[in-house]
Specification:
This protein has 139 residues and is mainly β. It contains 1 helix and 9 strands.
Length: 139
Amino acid sequence: MIRVTLVRIESGDQGTFGRLVAGAFRCFTGEQPWRDNASNVSCIPPGEYRAIWTMSPRFRRMMYVLLSTTPRAGIRIHPANLMGDRAKGWRSQLNGCIALGERLGTLGGQKALLVSAPAMRAFETLMGGKPFILEVRNG
């Protein structure tokens, strides 16, 4: 099975940012800050997760979802730019999921993941709907 690695390089109230590597493919990642694995507000713990290609009822399209994230569910990989802690006044387009992007930057004075949709398309094309193992590590 294909192995994909996500190494977190920075985390704070504005989000958790890292690098994803799948063979020769490389991109940046964005997740919400660590909030004790709480649903809808936290990134997931470091570990290994199997990812499968499934239909997302919310997004109404096929995308990857991570398995074995109990007690949480529905952790998907999808486009997003902002991933801050809403309770601290930052904006977020995530509810515990992982976003991919081509670079890091700022949007409206907040740290952000940029060029997300093209990075997602490139990753999904590369993976071709095949399952993979995602290893998440804190850097």
